[in-house]
Amino acid sequence: MTVAVYDDLPLGSQRMYSTPDDLKIVNANPQENSINIAIADDYPLLLAGMRESLAHCDDIVVVAECIRMCDLLPQVALKKPGVILLGCEISLDNLAQQLHSIAEHHSDVKVILFTANASLNFHEVALRNGAKGVLLKHCPPELLAKTVRKVSRGNLSFDRTLTDRMLRTLVQRKPTEPPSERTRISSLTRRENQIIIRICEGMRNKEIASKLSISHATVAHHLTSIYRKLGLADRTELLLYAQQNGISQLRAS
pLDDT 10s per residue in the chain (253 long)? Predict the structure, then answer.
């Protein structure tokens, strides 16, 4: 468990310093297979609540905590968590910008948003811009750890109403008499299946290219072919489609 020591400042103005001289952190030795997580929220009280909810989990280790976005990116670079639990009460435009900033600097980190915003539009923007899950702040405390574990394994964690709505949108956009999903999936090549499985594991194009020993341009070409064959528009729809049709459960080879 990471313990961050704050200055004795009025509530709401405490901050976690970023420099080695200012930041005092005590790290326990995490288990070899533990999930390292960074937590962030504008309010220290909510940050403490996140930490407390995860304190009993032997397999989840809080390695960094921040109350400012400008502190979060440097701490992620330093501590290298696999998951970020991000308290978020911002506009849709700022949400997209914030998620893009995290993905640009730390493409391998999975982001879970922790919010009081129950709007499906908010959740859809989060999903389309790279978040792997959304948790509402009125959820039971035990759901926090369950969601972290689920997302860490490469799964999505969103409100069922949202995913149903997005899947209905996909169906409505397809031709009147489309080929069956089994026919679509069987048209995928072995390499295309490998790429889909890696995407479901949370890999970005650069990581997939390295893993499969192919160029970044070749990965992009395969993705274009996958979208065309399955009638999808982007990576988010591919993730939903793969989970809905069991492609994400296949073993990578």
Answer: 343 433 333 333 333 333 333 333 334 444 568 999 999 998 899 999 999 999 999 999 999 999 888 889 999 999 999 999 999 888 888 888 889 889 888 888 999 999 998 887 888 888 888 899 999 888 888 999 999 999 999 888 887 776 777 667 666 655 544 557 788 888 899 999 999 999 888 888 888 999 999 998 899 899 999 998 888 888 888 888 888 887 766 655 5
Give me the architecture of the 2-162 domain, per CATH: 3-Layer(aba) Sandwich (3.40)
What's the whole-model pTM score? 0.61
Neighbours of 188 (CB within 10 A): 18
Closest CA to 113 of 128, 104, 238: 128
Q: Output the CATH code of domain 170-249.
A: 1.10.10.10
| Chain region(s) in the chain for CATH 1.10.10.10 | 170-249
